[in-house]
Design goal:
alpha+beta; five-stranded antiparallel beta sheet; 46% strand
Amino acid sequence: MRAARRLLITLIVLFGLFVAADRVAVTVAESQVAGKLQTQRGLAQKPGVDIKGFPFLTQLAGGKLDDVRVHAVNMVVRGSSGNSVILQTFDADLKGVKLENDYSTAVADTATGTATVSYAELSIAIPSHPTFGYAGNGRVTVAATADVPGLGSKHFGATAKLVPAGNGTGIGLADISGITGLSGIPGVAGQLVSGLVGESLGLQLSLDGLPQGLTVSQVVPGPDGVSITVGGSGVSLNGGEA
């Protein structure tokens, strides 16, 4: 009986030591991955990295981590005009993550995520620099200046939906309606101008620099900005730097 008790105590102690070692190892790994991502993606702040699942050491020995969560702020990508576009937040949930090269490479079997961007940043990213705002009911207001043949530079506005564009590499405007600024332009000329304005406001915004393998699946406008849902397979957190 006494021998069994000593064995039990020994097992409990060993298990406790294993748990402690495992938690230390996962904390070190999270810090290492975060540091590499900060350097590679030029982030001003170290991103949050949370490696889920227990035990960590057996996952690492098996070559893949079950679930890794990443949270970054002020991540820079490139817009259509080549200007830098700042994503206010970027959150990703990565499944089946393979870490290599001393945590310098992180590739996930699949990943989903969300990025948020302000309307001011959207305006900066598009060459014509239209002004965006929230219109409610899943729509945005957009205003821009367009050159109209025979009439010169005119200011127009409209409402539109934001949708994935460019095979998921960016954002575009769709269902443009309620165009304003057409007063005094009669008949066929007005229809022609409407078409020109639609083309001007319908320019697509590319988002170059998202982690390689991610594409845009949904764009939802809100009062303070836009929420962009992304997903993909074979996603490299280290690839696609801006």
